[in-house]
Amino acid sequence: MTVSTPSSNLGRHVFGIAALSYGLITLTWHDYNDGHHQQRYIVYAAAAALIFGGAAIQFGRTAKVGAAVLGAAYFVFVLLCVPGIAAAPQIYNSWGNFFEQFSLLNGAALVYARLSSAWSAETLNRTGRILLGICAASLSLEQAFYLSATAKLVPKWVPLTQMFWAVTTTVLFALAAVALLTNRMALLASRLLTMMIVSFGLLVWVPLVLSNPHNHTNWSENAETFEIAGAIWILADLLGEHRLANVNNSKKKSGEFNAQVASGEKYQR
Are 101 and 77 in contact (CB under 8 A)? Predict the structure, then answer.
């Protein structure tokens, strides 16, 4: 899932492509016949930000700017979820929407912070783990509260029952959240979580798009699923990079120690 090199950027590319796609979908599918001109301008601005940011984040020289633009857009989306929560705090769907957008905000923020070198790798990884761990916990709760609706999305041709996979993925989201929040097998958890969310896109939303390409929801949910997967993938890349750096440092220190021991034994002779 993640290339084990210090410069792995697969998560960033997936995240950017999905964001760009969502911007194009928003621009293409929005109905402007409602007479709300202000809403039209907001949609134009949001779509432009996602398209520009998603394209810019693909390239090393413009990735930081792209991450900043995407972060600003997702910050606005997060704020737009707050009125729904305030109006009906007992309905978890509003909370779920908030944390879905918050996960995307975190994905953009991780890219920006990594490229700006403002934080140490330890601080960046810890912050990413905790915030995205909370988002994973929210995804688990969202599926638990709407378990029947979740089960209906599982393709009927998948072995076992739809409810089995709804319950299983809900539990896996919860386990991933615990792993990220406690830093226990966090790298493995982030990679498996990425794989699971990508599988949602490939097994659930891509077939729905192919079967009903005129449905805007199918397209938008598909793009958002890969955006969330990209955000988790970014964290997995960072954790993998950090672990590889630690392994290399350990090998370097071990080599230096062995060289000193060998030099000491030679001197004693």
Answer: yes
